[in-house]
Amino acid sequence: MKSIFNQLHTEEILDRINKLSPDSKRQWGKMDVAQMLAHCSSFQVIAMGNAFPSRGWLGILIGPFVKPIFYNDKQLAQNMSTIPTILIVDEKEFETEKEKLKQKIIEFQKNGPEKCTTHPHPFFGKLTSEQWGKGIYKHLDHHLKQFGV
To answer: Which of 39, 3, 11 lies closest to 106, judged by CA?
Structure first.
C-alpha cells in the first residue's frame, strides 16, 4: 500500500492535483472540484493534529472493527459518508484550495510520521502513524479518481 510519507507517492499525488482544473467534472458524489480540495485539506488538518472532531457513537461502536478499510489495498466505496465537520457545501475558489491542499500535503509529508496526530480518527479511532500515512494517501487517491486524475 502506498503512503503519503513516501516521497515518491507524495510527488505522484501532487502531480495528479496539478492535473485538476476548475472545470474538472466529478464522476460521483456531490462536491465540485474546489469543494473536494477543501475537504481534503480539512482532512489533512485532522491528521496533522490541528483539529479534533468528536467521535460519534457509531464510530465508537464499529470504527475499530472496520478501520482497515481506511488503510488497506482495497478502493474506498464511491459515495461513502464523511466526517460531518469536513463535509464542504459552500462555494470555494479552485486555485486557493488547490494551493492550500498542496501545501498541507507537503508539510505533512515533510513532518513525517513523528508529527502525525495521536488523537483518534473521528470514526475509526486510534491509528498508528503508518496507518495514517496509508489512509491519507488512500483518501487523496479516492478523491482524485473521483475527478478523473
So the answer is: 11
